[in-house]
Specification:
Layout: E1 7-8, E2 17-27, E3 33-43, E4 49-52, E5 57-63, E6 66-67, E7 73-75, E8 79-82, E9 88-97, E10 107-111, E11 114-118, E12 138-147, E13 153-156, E14 159-165, E15 170-181, E16 188-191, E17 193-201, E18 207-215, H1 223-240, E19 248-254, E20 261-262, E21 267-271, H2 284-299, E22 308-309, H3 315-333, H4 336-355, E23 367-368, H5 377-410, E24 414-415, H6 417-428, H7 437-440, E25 446-454, E26 459-467, E27 482-489, E28 495-496, E29 504-506, E30 512-516, E31 520-525, E32 533-536, E33 545-547, H8 552-561, H9 565-586, H10 594-605, H11 610-616, H12 622-626, H13 635-652, H14 654-663, H15 673-692, H16 694-706, H17 711-723, H18 729-740, H19 744-755, H20 762-769, H21 780-792, H22 794-797, H23 803-818, H24 820-826, H25 828-831, H26 838-852, H27 859-869
Parallel strand pairs: 2-12, 18-19, 19-21, 22-24, 25-33
Antiparallel strand pairs: 1-23, 2-3, 3-9, 4-8, 5-6, 5-9, 7-8, 10-11, 11-16, 12-15, 13-16, 14-15, 17-18, 20-21, 25-26, 26-31, 27-28, 27-30, 27-32, 29-30
Helix pairs in contact: 1-2, 2-3, 3-4, 3-5, 4-5, 5-6, 8-9, 8-10, 9-11, 9-13, 11-15, 13-15, 14-15, 15-16, 15-17, 16-17, 16-18, 17-19, 18-19, 19-21, 23-24, 23-26, 24-27, 26-27
Bound molecules: tryptophan and zinc ion.
Length: 871
C-alpha cells in the first residue's frame, strides 16, 4: 500500500469533468455485491479523468456503449485514470464489492442483519469509481435489488419511483433524488425493520411523509425521535425561514456506526444511540442528545446539503454552522443557560486540549492527510463558537440577514467558508477582514485583563492584552477580533451600566459589549463612584482563556447575584479552580473558606433552576485542571486536589445536601424539563451524600441502581456505587448486567461506568472487561464506552506503571486493521505525551514508536503519530 500524501487547501483545482447524472444499479449480496454505474460526464477543464476507487474489483468499463480497451486506462490501488475522452459522454462501470468483510464501516457494509452505507467523507469510492469530491454535484437514480425475505425494505435518497418482484425470491426498488448532490450524501439501506410513520405539513404546504426504521421490537423507542424531528422541522421554519424540500424524510437506526449520525439527503442514517430512547433504557441526557442530533442532521438539509462544501478543507462551513444551529434549537426549546454551559465545557475540556496538541489546526485546516482525522472538536465546536461570535457581533437580525443572502447567492452550490463570511459581511455592511483570522489561525487565544480604580478621580481603567501561543506550523500569530460581553456590579450585587463610550455598546443579550482587535488596548471610564466588580466574557462570548483580576470575594458576589445564569455558574467554577490550583501548587488537600461554603450553601437553596444548581455542584474534573499544566503535569497532586475538594464539599454541606435531597422527588415517570432538572440536582446531592457517608447510603444507592423503570435513576446510582466503591458495588454491577444483557445501549453504560471510575483498580477492571463476552472490537459504541472513556480518565490512564498505556496500545493495534477511524479516535491521549514527566513520556513515546512500526499502518494513525513525534 502506498503511503498517503498530504493535501493542501491552497492546491484546490476544479475537476476536469462534471458528472450531471448517475444511474446506479446495485445488486446486493453479502459477499459479492455488483454495482453498475452509468454516468454522464462533461468536460470542464483540461486533463485526464481521474476517478477515485478503493478496494473495488473492476469488471468492465464502457464509454458511449463501447468496451474500453485496457491500454486506454490505468488502475491503481486508489484511482482509475482514463485519457483521451470526448467532451461529453456516457460511461458505464461495473464493479464488485464484499460488504460482509467491511469492518471499517465506510462504504457499503453490514450492520447486524442490514446493509447500509456511510459515504462521508470519502466512502463512496469504496462503492464504485467516481469523482468522490464534494464539488461534483449530480442527480442520482438508484436501483437496489436484494432477497425479499431478508431485506423487505430497500431505501435510497429522494422519492420512490418504482418497485417490484424479481426472480429467485428477490425484489427491487428504484429511487430518484431530484436535488443534485455530492457523492458523500448518497445512501442506501436494505433490511428488515420496524417502521414508525408520521407526517409533517411544511409552511410551504408540502406534506412530508416521515419514517423511522429501527430493529424489530424497538418501535416504541423511536417515538421520541419522531417528535424531535417534527420539532426540528418547525423550528427551522420559524427561526431560519427554512422549510423541507422533499416529500419524504427517512431515518434509519443502525447499531454499528463510527460516528453519531449522517445527513444523507432524505435518508439519514443514525447510530441507534441517537434514535432509541424510552425512560426504561435512556437517561435524561440521552433524550437531550437524541433531540439535538436529530436536529443537527435535519438542519444539514440546508446547511450542508442544499449549500455544500467546495472541498473538505471547508468542512466547518457546514459543521460549525450546523452545530451552532442545533445549539440554538436546543436552547430555544430547553434551558438556554444549561445548553450554553454544556457547550462551554466541551470547548474547555476537549477543544482547548486539541488546540494545545500536535494536531492543532484552524477551524479551516490547511493541510490534511486523512480527512477522517478532521471531524474534530475544533472544526465542529470551535467552528460553532466562531459562528456564535458573528452572531454576537451582528445581532440576531443581522445574522439572519446574512443567512438569507448566503442562501440567495449559493443555493445549489458547493462553496467555501469565505463565501459564507462574504455574505454576512455584504448583508450587514460590516467589515469582517480581521475577523477572518479565526478561520486561518489555530490555537487558543489568552486574554488578560487588569483593572485599576482611582477613587479620587473616580476613574476606572482597564487594560487588555491578547496573545495566541504558537502551534505546530504556525509560529507567528496575529491579534484576533474578540467580542467580550460583560456586566458590572456594585458591591451589593446590583448591575450598573458603565457610562457608554464609542467602544462599548449595549448588547441585545443585556450585557455590554467591548471588542478587542489589538494585542493591547485599554478603556477608561470616568464618573465611576465606586470600584465595580466586572464579570467578563459573559456567556463565554469568545473561545479564549481568560485571566481576570477578580478575587474570591468578587466571585462569591457574582455567584450569588449575577443576572445571567451562566455567569453564576462560571463564578462557582472559578472559586473551585482557584482552590484546586492552590492545592496542586502546594501539594495539599483543597480547602474552601467559610464564606465560600456559605456562598455555595446559599446557591444550593436559592430559587434557581435545579439544572443550573446541578451544574454549579459539578466540580471541575482532573482533565479540566490538567489543562493548566503543560509540562511535568503533577498527576498525584491533581488527584489529591480533586478528590479532597469533593470530600470537603460533601462534608461541609452534608446537611444541606440531605435537606435538598429529601425535598426533591425523583418523579420517575415525568419527562418534563422541570422533572429532569430535579433529577439532575438529586443526583448531585446523592453523589455528595454517599461520598460523605458511604456506609449509610449504600443500601439506598443499591436499591435505586437495581430498580428498573427510569434509566436516569438507575445509571445515576450505578455511577455513584462504582465511583465511591460503595459496599454494594459488586452486587449492583451484577444485577444491572443481568437485567440489561440484551439491550446493547444500556450495556454500554455498564461498561462506561467502570471505565470512568477514579478508583485505582480501574486499569485492572478494564483489562478484564475486554474479555467479557459482551465486549466486541467490532462495535464502535462498545469500544468508545469502555476504551474512549478509560483513555479520558486521565488519573487512571496515566497510572505509574504504564499499564494503561499498554492496554490502549494493544487495542489500537487491533483496530488499525479492523477499523482505522475508531483506532485513530482512541489515540488522542497519546498525542499529549510531552505534557508529562520523563518516565511517562518515555513509556508513551515507546507506544507511539511501536504503533508506527505496524505493518499496514492506517493513514489515519500514520498522520497523527507522525505529528505527535515531530520535533
Ligand atoms: N456529517 C456527519 C455529522 O456531523 C458526521 C459523520 C457521520 C461522519 N459519519 C461520519 C464523518 C463518518 C466522517 C465519517 O452529522
Ligand atoms: Zn454535522
Amino acid at each position: 500500500m502506498s503511503k498517503k500524501l498530504a493535501k493542501f487547501r491552497s492546491d484546490y483545482r476544479a475537476p476536469a469533468f462534471s458528472i450531471t447524472t448517475v444511474h446506479l444499479d446495485i445488486d446486493l449480496d453479502e459477499r459479492a455485491t455488483q454495482v453498475r454505474s452509468q454516468l454522464h460526464l462533461e468536460r470542464k477543464n483540461s486533463g485526464p479523468l481521474e476517478l477515485d476507487g478503493e478496494q473495488l474489483k473492476l469488471t468492465s468499463i464502457k464509454i458511449d456503449g463501447k468496451v474500453l480497451p485496457p491500454q486506454n486506462y490505468e488502475v491503481t490501488d486508489k484511482q482509475l485514470i482514463v485519457h483521451e475522452l470526448p467532451d461529453s459522454f456516457e460511461m458505464e462501470l461495473v464493479t464488485e464489492i464484499d460488504p460482509s468483510s467491511n469492518s471499517a464501516l465506510e462504504g457499503l457494509y453490514k450492520s447486524g442483519g442490514a446493509f447500509c452505507t456511510q459515504c462521508e467523507a470519502e466512502g463512496f469510492r469504496r462503492i464504485t469509481y467516481y469523482l468522490d469530491r464534494p464539488d461534483v454535484l449530480a442527480v442520482f437514480t438508484t436501483k437496489i435489488s436484494a432477497d425479499r425475505e431478508l431485506y423487505p425494505y430497500l431505501l435510497s435518497n429522494g422519492n420512490l419511483e418504482s418497485s417490484g418482484e424479481l426472480d429467485g425470491g428477490r425484489h427491487y426498488a428504484t429511487w430518484h433524488d431530484p436535488h443534485p448532490k455530492p457523492a458523500y450524501l448518497f445512501a442506501l439501506v436494505a433490511g428488515n425493520f420496524d417502521r414508525l410513520e408520521d407526517h409533517y405539513q411544511t409552511s410551504e404546504g408540502r406534506d412530508v411523509r416521515l419514517e423511522i426504521f429501527v430493529d424489530k421490537g424497538n418501535l416504541s423507542r423511536a417515538e421520541y425521535a419522531m417528535a424531535a424531528l417534527k420539532r426540528s422541522m418547525q423550528w427551522d421554519e420559524e427561526r431560519f425561514d427554512l422549510a423541507y424540500d422533499l416529500d419524504r424524510y427517512m431515518i434509519v437506526a443502525v447499531d454499528f456506526f463510527n460516528m453519531g449520525a449522517m445527513e444523507n439527503k432524505g435518508l439519514n442514517i443514525f447510530n441507534s444511540k441517537y434514535v432509541l430512547a424510552d425512560q426504561m433504557t435512556a437517561t435524561d441526557w440521552d433524550f437531550v442528545h437524541v433531540e439535538s442530533v436529530i436536529g443537527h442532521e435535519y438542519f444539514h438539509n440546508w446547511t450542508g446539503n442544499r449549500i455544500t462544501c467546495r472541498d473538505w478543507f471547508q468542512l466547518s462551513l457546514k459543521e460549525g454552522l450546523t452545530v451552532f444551529r442545533d445549539q440554538e434549537f436546543s436552547s430555544d426549546l430547553g434551558s438556554r443557560a444549561v445548553h450554553r454551559i454544556d457547550a462551554v465545557r466541551v470547548i474547555r475540556s476537549f477543544q482547548f486540549n486539541e488546540d494545545a496538541s500536535p494536531m492543532a489546526h484552524p477551524i479551516r485546516p490547511d493541510k490534511v492527510v486523512e480527512m477522517n482525522n478532521f471531524y474534530t472538536v475544533t472544526v465542529y465546536n470551535k467552528g460553532a463558537e466562531v459562528i456564535r461570535m458573528l452572531h454576537t457581533l451582528l445581532g440576531e437580525q443581522g445574522f439572519q440577514r446574512g443567512m438569507r443572502l448566503y442562501r440567495e447567492r449559493h443555493d445549489g452550490q458547493a462553496v467555501t467558508c469565505e463565501d459564507f463570511v462574504a455574505a454576512m459581511e455584504a448583508a450587514n455592511d460590516f467589515d469582517l477582514t480581521q475577523f477572518r483570522r479565526w478561520y486561518s489561525q489555530a490555537g487558543t487565544p489568552e486574554v488578560r485583563i487588569a483593572q485599576h480604580y482611582d477613587a479620587q478621580q473616580q476613574q476606572l481603567t482597564l487594560n487588555f492584552q491578547q496573545l495566541t501561543p504558537a502551534t505546530p506550523g504556525q509560529e507567528e500569530k496575529f491579534p484576533l477580533v474578540i467580542p467580550l460581553l460583560f456586566s458590572a456590579y456594585d458591591e451589593k450585587g446590583s448591575r450598573i451600566q458603565l457610562t457608554a463610550k464609542d467602544e462599548v455598546v449595549k448588547h441585545e443579550s443585556g450585557s455590554q459589549l467591548y471588542t478587542l482587535t489589538e494585542t493591547t488596548s485599554s478603556l477608561t471610564f470616568s464618573n465611576v463612584e465606586q470600584e465595580p466588580i466586572i464579570a467578563w466574557l459573559e456567556n463565554f462570548s469568545a473561545p479564549v482563556k481568560l485571566q481576570t483580576p477578580l478575587t474570591t470575594v468578587d466571585l462569591e458576589l457574582l455567584l450569588g447575584h449575577a443576572e445571567q445564569e451562566v455567569t453564576r455558574w462560571e463564578a462557582a467554577q472559578q472559586v473551585y479552580l482557584k482552590a484546586l490550583q492552590e492545592a496542586v501548587d502546594t501539594n495539599q488537600a483543597a480547602q474552601l473558606s467559610e464564606s465560600q461554603y456559605t456562598a455555595l450553601k446559599k446557591a444550593l437553596h436559592a430559587p434557581l433552576d435545579d439544572a443550573l444548581k446541578a451544574l454549579i455542584f459539578t466540580l471541575p474534573s482532573a482533565e479540566e485542571l490538567l489543562e493548566y499544566y503543560t509540562e511535568d503535569a503533577p498527576l498525584d497532586a491533581i488527584e489529591l486536589a480533586v478528590t479532597s475538594l469533593a470530600k470537603t464539599v460533601a462534608d461541609e454541606l452534608s446537611d444541606d445536601f440531605a435537606e435538598c435531597f429529601a425535598k426533591l422527588d425523583s418523579q420517575p415517570d415525568d419527562l418534563s424539563g422541570k422533572a429532569m432538572a430535579a433529577r439532575a440536582l438529586r443526583q448531585r446531592c446523592l453523589y455528595f451524600l454517599a461520598l460523605a457517608q458511604p456506609q449509610q447510603y449504600s443500601d439506598e444507592v443499591a436499591e435505586q441502581a437495581c430498580q428498573q423503570g427510569n434509566m436516569t435513576l438507575q445509571q445515576g446510582a450505578l455511577e455513584i456505587a462504582v465511583q465511591h466503591q460503595l459496599p454494594c458495588v459488586e452486587q449492583v454491577l451484577a444485577t444491572f448486567a443481568e437485567q440489561w444483557q440484551d439491550t446493547p445501549l444500556v450495556m454500554d453504560k455498564w461498561f462506561a461506568a467502570q471505565a470512568n471510575a477514579l478508583h485505582d483498580t480501574t486499569v485492572e477492571r478494564v483489562t478484564q472487561l475486554i474479555e467479557h463476552p459482551k465486549f466486541s472490537l467490532r462495535n464502535p459504541n462498545r469500544v468508545y464506552a469502555l476504551l474512549a472513556n478509560f483513555s479520558r480518565n486521565s488519573l487512571r490512564f496515566h497510572q505509574q506503571d504504564g499499564a494503561g498505556y499498554k492496554l490502549l496500545q494493544s487495542i489500537i493495534t487491533q483496530l488499525n486493521t479492523l477499523n482505522p477511524q475508531v483506532a485513530s479516535r482512541l489515540i488522542t491521549p497519546f498525542m499529549q505525551w510531552r505534557r508529562f514527566d520523563t518516565r511517562r513520556q518515555q513509556m508513551m513515546k515507546e507506544c507511539l514508536l511501536q504503533l508506527q512500526q505496524l505493518p499496514d499502518l492506517a493513514p489515519d494513525l500514520d498522520e497523527k503519530i507522525a505529528n505527535a513525534l515531530q520535533q
